[in-house]
Amino acid sequence: MISCIAPQTQEQFKQYYSLRWQELRSPWRQPKGSEQDELEAIAFHRMLVDEQGKVYAVGRLHIDNEWLGHIRYVATDNNQQGKGFGKTIMLALEQLAKTHGVHTICLNARENALMFYQNIGYTTKSIAHKLYDDIQHFSMEKKLAEIPENQCSLIKSLQQKWHNTIPLSKVMGITADFYDGNTFLTHCDIAINKNIHQTMFAGSIYTLATLTGWGWVYLQINAQNIQGDIVLADGKIKYYKPIPDGANGVIKRENTSGDALQKEQKGKTSFIVEVGIYTGDSLAAQFTGKYVVVKKQ
User: Do 154 and 286 reside in the same domain of the chain?
Assistant: First the structure.
């Protein structure tokens, strides 16, 4: 069975980059390492593997400051061509982009891959660069389907609430990017939240985490048309690694508890929410918060 995964271990990344180099650089006698660039640490990586760990295809997604998704380094093992692995990795990267609020994907396709990308919905925009003075590339683009209007309205309502009642959220550039009922994602403009080491302030990470949790609770009670004041009653955070760029808050429903319709004593409802703060695929911090909703009479 072949699965799409994000490489995590040193061995997985070794195999991931090996296939990149083997298919995209080795035929042009480029050295190992030329298959990587400065965005690796903050990008999203996906690979197709079987039960034995054999790699069939790889690809990378990077989201820029203008909220465009850039897919690069898509490669399929030359011995596995024509089996749909390239399409599978592309669909996985596109779905990942959607869940991070991306509406447009950009890429530079080699001339011999134009038909492949056209067949999965990409349109050619212009002639791009020529790699190694030999491989002509073309700029291509695809618009992704937007989230349903009711969920989009909830997100807009939340962001307006943040910026109107919690001024720090606006100063920090915190945005609500995606919500589908099960997953909620936020983003922070790290350019104005860096310390002297050019990584994100620990205080900014904590603020992003607590507001992401607060936002989750807001979405739950508003979906049930319940009015109430949301208060953070308790919170704990663990920091795992520095964030040089691209900070995202992520909540999965399975990592939460609490029911907006369940009333506790004195008209209160509580939620336990786990928030992951990520840079690319890497977990940088983990926050657990207890939020209390005091229902308005």
Answer: yes
